[in-house]
Amino acid sequence: xxxxMDWMRQIVIAHMVKQKIxxxxxxxxxxxxxxxxxxxxxxxxxxxxxxxxxxDAGYKEFLRHANGWNSFFQAIDVFGIxxxxxGKKQERANEILESLExxxxxxxxxxxxxxxxxVSTEDIDLFIISKSNSHAPGAVFWxxxxxxxxxxxxxxxxxxMFDYNRREYELAVEGS
Length: 176
Known about the structure:
There is one protein chain. This protein is an alpha+beta fold. It has one domain (7-170): SMI1/KNR4-like (3-Layer(aba) Sandwich), CATH 3.40.1580.10. It is built from seven helices and six strands, in the order H-H-H-E-E-H-H-H-E-E-E-E-H. A six-stranded antiparallel sheet has the order 1-2-3-4-5-6, with helices on both faces. Helix 1 (7-24) runs parallel beside helix 7 (154-175). The longest helix is centred in the last third of the chain and has 22 residues, at 154-175. Residues 38-160 form the Knr4/Smi1-like domain. Pfam families: SMI1_KNR4. This is SMI1/KNR4 family protein.
């Protein structure tokens, strides 16, 4: 059973952590963008019709509060609806996915069971989620040539990524 996350609260906290990183590392390597304005239910439903799939419930809740987030973690951009439907981020994600010949061996899912939802603009980091029609819907994987980490849900992924951001803040404070 999935836990119900307070997305608004967690996004606000996540943004505050990103701003703290920017304050202690103003000339840092990474951008520190804001989350995008929430997607409407109609936009989400339209995207699902175009994609021919039902989006993961946790990802839909994220989109209802932030329709994407550039530089969410370092150079990693979380897709908004427009990115799911095409564009440079989707192209980059597809290139990385295509380069992973042993995808099923890596994560236990076939390519058709997975959807990219975040990608690095600088490296080979890719985040994928198993589709609703897969054998285990909602599983999230962080790939960079191999599985870096995996999470049982979008909610767990979001919270873990902000543990990574908190660690980045701690390192920036130590380095200043």
